[in-house]
Specification:
142 residues; alpha/beta; Nucleotidyltransferase, domain 5; globular
Amino acid sequence: MTYINKKYLGLDYGSVRIGVSISDELGILARPFMVLKNSKNIKTEIENIILQNQIQKIIIGLPINLQGQKSNKTLEVEKFVNDVICKIGIDYEYWDERFTSLQAKNISLMINTKKKKRQEKGLIDKYAAAILLQTFLDSVKK
């Protein structure tokens, strides 16, 4: 039996930090990977992650409001995609990220992460990236 390598990169965009998650080779499970500082070097850093991990597609969290409408943050994410991701030249897809940060905080509490660790900048960002990527992967399996 031959499996197709379909690794995904999940991005939870933030003005200061970007949470990053990666799927397994089969595109079944997502795991928190790292947090990137959103700086002028972000394109190069994302390109390096893509090359080092043989990523085929990026899933980008799209922050829409509860009514399903765009917000200022949505426009900021779209600008990031146009300015960075499109220039990398990799396939990408937006994914609804509503409630991922709240879910990430809850998971952090459920796994008994110590308070000091929970307060670490970026911990929630990479968990949120993993949650949004996992919900995408789950929807693809259906």
